[in-house]
Inverse folding.
């Protein structure tokens, strides 16, 4: 009787372990699918300053232009400021 109880307990915990491993694997597969979808979903835009293409979701837009970083946006906008005429 005791041996049957031990065997049942071992089988129960082995099944529980297998279930947890399967559930972990399944969640990992879903995360991979979400990552693939996220990577494929974005339109690529070109930085006005350095001409590098970046995903639209990561780019910055200012005054109708796209930029890969705030530093490039600031440089571009500084160049676009009209210079003060000398008197």
């Amino acid at each position: 009787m005791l041996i049957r109880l031990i065997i049942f307990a071992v089988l129960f915990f082995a099944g529980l372990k297998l279930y947890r491993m399967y559930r972990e694997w399944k969640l990992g597969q879903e995360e991979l699918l979400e990552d693939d979808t996220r990577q494929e979903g974005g339109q690529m835009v070109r930085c006005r300053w350095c001409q590098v293409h970046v995903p639209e979701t990561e780019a910055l837009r200012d005054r109708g232009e796209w930029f890969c970083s705030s530093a490039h946006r600031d440089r571009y906008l500084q160049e676009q400021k009209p210079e003060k005429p000398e008197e």
Notes: The CA atoms of residues 6 and 12 lie 10 Å apart.
